[in-house]
Amino acid sequence: MIMDAAKVFEAEGFASPAQRLVLLELTYRADRRGIIRYTQSEIASASALSRPTVSRWLSEFSECGIIDNVGHGRYRLQRSCLEDLGSLIQPTRVTTEAPGAKEEFERLQAVCEPDEAIVYSSQGWPILRLKSELGMD
After folding, report:
1. How far apart, in whole angstroms, are the C-alpha atoms of residue 50 and residue 37?
2. How many distinct helices (H) and strands (E) make up the chain?
3. Which of 34, 70, 123, 127 could be a cystine partner for 77, CB 3.0 to 4.6 Å?
4. pTM here?
5. Spatial separation of the C-alpha atoms in residues 67 and 75, rounded to whole Å
6. Are 25 and 47 spatial neighbours (Cβ–Cβ below 8 Å)?
7. For each successive 10 residues of the chain (137 residues), what is the average pLDDT?
8. Is the dihedral of CA 2, 43, 78, 84 positive or negative?
9. Enclosing H/E stretch for 108
């Protein structure tokens, strides 16, 4: 629903633009009961992301309680969670096994400014980027 998408668009704290995009796609495609009848492949195609990327973010959203997997390629959006989205999304979760990445992530957390975000390079290494560069203004 459009109002839900507006809440996602305005929320802060996303780990990446891809995370925001997947949640925007879910909120846009949810019916009035919050049911999303799209497979991971369909969501990936609609958002121009890979299916593994979509799968990773769907798992994160499920762990946070933002969505429930109701089976057969369907998800239920928990609209009540969208009110406090910033506290639910987990941008600080380390999702890489690169040697030393966890320690570097913790170091970056300590020095990260409010206008910066921690993102991961293609090699699985955490790096700081300005939120404005990531479209997270």
Report:
1. 18
2. 6, 5
3. 34
4. 0.59
5. 6
6. yes
7. 67 79 86 86 88 87 83 80 60 55 85 85 76 72
8. negative
9. helix 101-111
